[in-house]
């Protein structure tokens, strides 16, 4: 039999399928066989193609069945956070973000705690679409802080206590606390998640929740060395109802320190003054409803953001705080009111709801407020290395000295 170049090798042996594929030439691209070589009949071609397709179909069916079986056996998410157990001791709050160190705000026998309820476990509202994500927490009777430190090579020493919102009905620790741990880490900033007591659980906002915020500042400052935190770079960021803790902290820290100066208090002598505050789409401040509290000369700088007319009530509360700071000439106060933006949870024109925290918000400028905060934070020197005096501290010291009686 005459050999055919490209189809038969030397000695008449047919090339392998691998060889044919490697040449990029297939059987239907060959020249017609030369004289003496028998061509394949159409019937044989049809039979060969049908057999190949049947084998391929069976193979694909087996593979699809195996893949389907694999999909049906997806394992559950491991280490989903759950509340701690209850026993005869005060409830022990559990970290809501892996790696967090949880410290109760008060000693277990503190008269500030409701001893009849302090053993009750917190209740988690879990996300229905993201395994392991805690959206919010209620039933908080042993308030705490959860500390997330950053690596020493990037640590600025700055610490931000985040106070979530939720209308004092829930504590929205997902979008307004947990999400900020990795965000602030990028800038070398330590994050402290505050779990304060709620009005829905029978607590007073001015007496209990505000005290929790001020106590958190003292507690972080008391352990600053343990956590490699600069004691002069500790502040609080409050979201919505959480801002109702941050704003009073900027004004009432001296009263709180005096009230808790008894030697029996383990934190006596440690200042509750925040080095900065941030009010994010804030609830009413002490200046709301014609309030006129005293403004200390060393009131800390403030960063304020809110939607504008789309979140009119909160924008007015933000503006009241700004106006009071401007009248008192407190340095380094900055505010951003966004023309397009509503309060988190409110229904938008397309039927969706406004997002909270760090969400992009469909590309609107309101979704980049956190970048404006970092600009302000860096400008005031909080992103320098630990131990270096900040511009914020220098400006406050200069402002206070100017107003001292001659």
Q: Can you characterise this structure?
A:
By secondary structure, the protein is α/β, with parallel strands linked by helices. It folds into two domains: 10-70, no CATH class; 101-402, Rossmann fold, CATH 3.40.50.1820. The chain is built from nine helices and ten strands. It has helices at 17-23, 42-71, 174-178, 180-185, 205-222, 243-259, 312-327, 369-379, 391-402; strands at residues 101-104, 123-126, 134-138, 144-148, 159-163, 190-195, 234-239, 277-280, 302-307, 333-338. The strands form two sheets. Strands 1-4-6-5-7-8-9-10 form an eight-stranded mixed beta sheet, sandwiched between helices. Strands 2-3 form a two-stranded antiparallel sheet. α5 (205-222) packs across α6. The chain is globular.
List keywords for this structure.
9 helices; 406 residues; 30% helix; eight-stranded mixed beta sheet; Rossmann fold; alpha/beta; two-stranded antiparallel sheet; single chain; 2 domains; 13% strand
Topology:
Layout: H1 17-23, H2 42-71, E1 101-104, E2 123-126, E3 134-138, E4 144-148, E5 159-163, H3 174-178, H4 180-185, E6 190-195, H5 205-222, E7 234-239, H6 243-259, E8 277-280, E9 302-307, H7 312-327, E10 333-338, H8 369-379, H9 391-402
Parallel strand pairs: 5-6, 5-7, 7-8, 8-9, 9-10
Antiparallel strand pairs: 1-4, 2-3, 4-6
Helix pairs in contact: 5-6
């Amino acid at each position: 039999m005459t050999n055919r170049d490209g189809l038969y090798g030397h000695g008449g042996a047919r090339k392998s399928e691998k060889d044919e594929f490697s040449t990029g030439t297939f059987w239907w691209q060959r020249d017609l066989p030369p004289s003496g070589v028998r061509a394949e009949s159409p019937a044989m071609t049809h039979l060969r193609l049908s057999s190949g397709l049947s084998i391929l179909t069976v193979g694909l069916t087996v593979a699809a069945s195996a893949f389907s079986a694999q999909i049906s056996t997806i394992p559950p998410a491991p280490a989903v956070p759950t509340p701690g157990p209850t026993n005869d001791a005060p409830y022990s709050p559990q970290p809501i973000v892996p790696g967090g160190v949880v410290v109760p705000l008060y000693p277990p026998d503190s008269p500030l705690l409701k001893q009849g309820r302090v053993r009750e476990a917190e209740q988690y509202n879990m996300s229905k679409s993201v395994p392991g994500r805690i959206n919010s927490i209620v039933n908080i009777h042993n308030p705490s802080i959860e500390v997330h430190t950053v690596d020493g090579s990037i640590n600025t020493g700055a610490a931000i206590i985040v106070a979530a919102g939720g209308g004092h009905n829930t504590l929205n620790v997902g979008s307004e606390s947990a999400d900020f741990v990795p965000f602030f880490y990028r800038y070398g900033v330590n994050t402290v998640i505050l779990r304060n007591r709620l009005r829905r659980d029978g607590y007073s906002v001015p007496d209990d929740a505000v005290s929790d915020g001020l106590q958190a500042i003292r507690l972080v400052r008391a352990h600053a060395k343990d956590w490699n935190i600069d004691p002069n770079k500790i502040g609080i960021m409050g979201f919505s109802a959480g801002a109702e803790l941050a704003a009073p902290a900027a004004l009432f820290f001296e009263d709180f320190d005096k009230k808790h100066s008894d030697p029996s208090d383990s934190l006596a002598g440690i200042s509750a003054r925040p080095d900065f505050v941030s009010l994010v789409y804030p609830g009413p401040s002490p200046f709301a409803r014609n309030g006129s509290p005293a403004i200390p000369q060393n009131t800390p700088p403030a960063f304020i953001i809110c939607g504008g007319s789309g979140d009119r009530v909160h924008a007015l509360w933000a503006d009241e705080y700004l106006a009071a700071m401007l009248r008192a000439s407190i340095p380094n106060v900055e505010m951003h009111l966004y023309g397009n933006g509503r309060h988190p949870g409110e229904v938008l024109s397309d039927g969706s709801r406004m997002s909270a925290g760090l969400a992009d918000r469909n590309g609107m400028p309101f979704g980049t407020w956190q970048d404006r905060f970092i600009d302000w934070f860096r400008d005031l020197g909080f992103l320098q290395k630990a131990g270096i005096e900040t511009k914020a501290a220098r400006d406050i010291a200069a402002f206070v000295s100017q107003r001292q009686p001659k």
